Fold this sequence. Notes:
By secondary structure, the chain is mostly beta strands. It has strands spanning 2-8, 10-15, 18-23, 29-33, 44-49, 57-64. The strands form 2 sheets. Strands 4-1-6 form a 3-stranded antiparallel beta sheet, with no helix packed on it. A hairpin with a 2-residue loop joins strand 2 (10-15) and strand 3 (18-23). It is elongated, with a radius of gyration of 13 Å.
Amino acid sequence: MIRFAAIAGRAELWVDGTRVAVKDAASVGPFEATVPPGGGVRTIAVLVEAAPGVASGLVGGMTLEPRAR
């Protein structure tokens, strides 16, 4: 599980080139998603979009929790 305290703007979470979650609201709010299983080095990307002139981005911290076994 990956959790962002908050993101300002719409957002997409991509893991290894696959979109795995979407935050549709443009307002500031939390964002979390389950990271699909996989081994080795992983690539995680967050795309944040907002209207021109509107503040956007990651707000606060992010945590990545290991999968329960």
